[in-house]
């Protein structure tokens, strides 16, 4: 727990508002909700993934962070440990079997089991048109966005069974309403909706729930090509009656809920965090 | 950034914008996440509605309970007050304009505004076939299940604006996958999916989010005709790979989340609490 | 396999199973695909409904046209009879029980049974906001758009059984993606998606299929408030990558298909005729 | 119109029933609908694909049939040519670039352009559990079911532009409601729903519509592991209120419609031919 002086310091000098307040405050009271649990979050050194990792750690879990570059892993771990959170980390390109194995091994160092897996790593969406995509582009997109989560889960599964665990896949509103510019990326995100449902059926008997976070336009480096484009953003905002752009913390709030006992009868669901809904 | 003195002042004395509430309440206790908020829950003296009322009160809200019979209202209030929760109550048949007015008046007795509206009241599902439904049956089902929530919201709306409020409608998995025996009831529940989305668009500018709870088979008196039918239940459970029947508290957990700041970028969504998902 | 003699007998003397009708009629001419069938189309003196009536008559059916005004019925009948098509007509406000009865009676004048029912009559969409809708507005919209098709079908049903019949309800893309300006109209159109599915389940054993036409922006008087608004139309067209506005005949083509033997395994479906799809 | 003698001859000696009636008869009158058009159908020497190929040829198109084995291609071509239909054929494993190129070349032999592409080739669904799927299994399923249709379309596209063309992808009801036994196959079929929509957006400006056939349980060799399992079939039939199992011709009827001018404003849609609908 943060001491009072640190907290005042943070109140005075941290730039952001509501979310961080929530973080600190809920550091006091809700820490218990995921205490003694272990969470693996891929693509978690920046943006949505980082925010999820931080939130699950604030909720009391030990979190294993990872992404493709060592320096990003180091930076994220330093930041989270600086907040007094329990984290370990490792480099992991989810598309590589040996990296996934190392990630599993790192996760198991903390107590021998894993409760939560959040699959956030994804290929950059700007892959061009679907009909222009080469075999290599398809392999990369489907490999990282669809195959890798399934394979990582397969490797983790023996260590997740019968722990009231949860898997969260990260899709996108483009899964439902494709952006023409995103081509094969749209398709990979639709596939994740199906992966969510079939995994939910398969893993129900192992007491593992599987749900899907469906972010809309969230303010991250990943999406800045969209939200920094003022014409796009203004039109998008008007079309969807958005009041504001989403923040990574908005996504983290849902993931925290989906891992918690409050969501213990929710599985197979895909839930948009978008300021609107892309489907009935 | 707020200067420290102003900020402390604001923390202490600002009454009820969502942000300050969030800080103060969650700074103390998870139970306080909805402190100083007022929630109206219809059909809340039994089953899912009662469980939602209790949970929102446990989260710190003042809750207005209601249903069609005085004795049920009395019983529910006694039970909740016996748990030390802040509740008031009134008889309300949501299909009657004067009852809705009385409910609004009762809600306003507690501080002058309303933050959350949960519309749970519904006609019993066993209405027979769709083609066998008379004009009277249709009027009753559409009246209570679809029209009444919209009209109640209209009456409450002037008191809900700009408070970071939330509306939760209660649909059903039969909205997506109709049970043939439920006829017009299925249709009314599908209509609520549309009502959720159109209200979400309309109310976004008033800082009110609108989402939809989609229960599956939940163990209540309302549904016992289904779950007490062993043949039905066994087949249903097997078809959906269910591990257990849902409990009213499972629904309450989602509603608690949807009212909380963690869901502040979620609107227009319909989320199943069913042990499976009825849709992509 | 039937022996030839028995089969010839059956071709000649079996009155009205779908199969024999199919063989005989389509043996003559594509225009005859619906020969010897009777179709009731509501709201059919203008726009989409008129186009459907014309197409089903061109396909060989006898078509009963109707709408609220005698002069419109007269005009439509004159136009269709002028094309050599087989039609009768009557005034019918679908929200009125006695009008529905008269429509049924008119339909039965032609051979004693009805094969197809297309429910196109609808309240004008410009009903204002959902939260601004009075009880009277809701009653009108739900009454005409949702209840009336169900009640008309109930009245026709005894005359539609076991004829390989088909019902087509007419929803709208706003059922999936509401326009904020259309309020309760959106909700009624979503309800029709549910009505389609529950009726399909109920009527399967009577050999009646039930499907839903989901028009997008179709060039009619009904929709001109939208497509005549150049700003709206340009934005809409760009958002959905539309190449053109839809024509009533585009809708009629789908309805013709849905009534034909080619669609004999399609039931419960909702199909958009919109130049794009509003859902996965 | 068929002369009586020919018709009696056909009655006596043709093996199949209703569908063939339709075929022969519509061979006279509807032949025009796709006359002078060229259609490529993959996986078309058996089952659903064969039925689609036959129907499009009956509608007047020249059809290029293909599948993985020369003897199957020879058999299918002989059967179709024996019916007086215009077909050519080639071996094509859609997962192989050189095979796709040969298929394109074969298609271009007939007039230099292609109007319709129906992608039916698919990996056998019995691939086991999702979490048990190896990287090789994923590569095969996603490669053949998702990547191959996209790549084949890319190769054909220069020859399809501005001809009022149509692409039909073949998904499955398991895209919406996964069967737990089908694992990664379910996921690939969900991906096709997304591929349909993103391609529809991309190709609208080239006057090519893209839609998706969503078969339910259709009586083919491919699906016999399901429909031959009596316990499964009986339960499935009861759950979905099915009156009968689907026939390949039911699928062909929809594809014929989707290629025809009657569907010229339908794009991006997924339509179930299943005797029920798996979604709103």
Automatic annotation (TrEMBL), chains A, B, C, D:
Which key words are in the record?
Oxidoreductase, Signal
Segment forming the signal sequence: 1-18
InterPro entries reported for this sequence: NAD(P)-bd_dom_sf, Sc_DH/Rdtase_CS, SDR_fam
Single GO MF annotation:
carbonyl reductase (NADPH) activity
Q: Which family does it belong to?
A: Belongs to the short-chain dehydrogenases/reductases (SDR) family.
What name is this protein filed under? Dehydrogenase/reductase SDR family member 2, mitochondrial isoform 2
């Amino acid at each position: 727990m943060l001491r009072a002086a640190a907290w005042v310091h943070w109140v005075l000098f941290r730039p952001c508002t509501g979310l961080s307040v929530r973080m600190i405050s809920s550091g006091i009271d809700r820490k218990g909700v995921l205490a003694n649990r272990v969470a693996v979050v891929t693509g978690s050194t920046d943006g949505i993934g980082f925010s999820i990792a931080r939130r699950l750690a604030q909720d009391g879990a030990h979190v294993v962070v990872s992404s493709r570059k060592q320096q990003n892993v180091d930076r994220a771990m330093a930041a989270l440990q600086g907040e007094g959170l329990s984290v370990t980390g490792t480099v992991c390109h989810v598309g590589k079997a040996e990296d996934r194995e190392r990630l599993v091994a790192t996760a198991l160092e903390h107590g021998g089991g894993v409760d939560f897996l959040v699959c956030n790593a994804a290929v950059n969406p700007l892959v061009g048109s679907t009909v222009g995509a080469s075999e290599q582009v398809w392999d990369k997109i489907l490999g990282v966005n669809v195959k890798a989560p399934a394979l990582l889960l397969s490797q983790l599964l023996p260590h997740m069974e019968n722990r009231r665990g949860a898997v969260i896949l990260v899709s996108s509103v483009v899964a439902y309403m494709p952006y023409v510019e995103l081509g094969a990326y749209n398709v990979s995100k639709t596939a994740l909706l199906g992966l969510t449902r079939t995994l939910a059926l398969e893993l129900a008997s192992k007491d593992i729930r599987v749900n899907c976070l469906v972010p809309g336009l969230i303010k991250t480096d990943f999406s800045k090509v969209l939200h920094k484009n003022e014409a796009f953003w203004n039109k998008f905002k008007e079309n969807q009656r958005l009041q504001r752009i989403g923040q990574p913390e908005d996504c983290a709030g849902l993931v925290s809920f989906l891992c918690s006992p409050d969501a213990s009868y929710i599985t197979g669901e895909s839930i948009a965090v978008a300021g609107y809904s892309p489907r009935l």
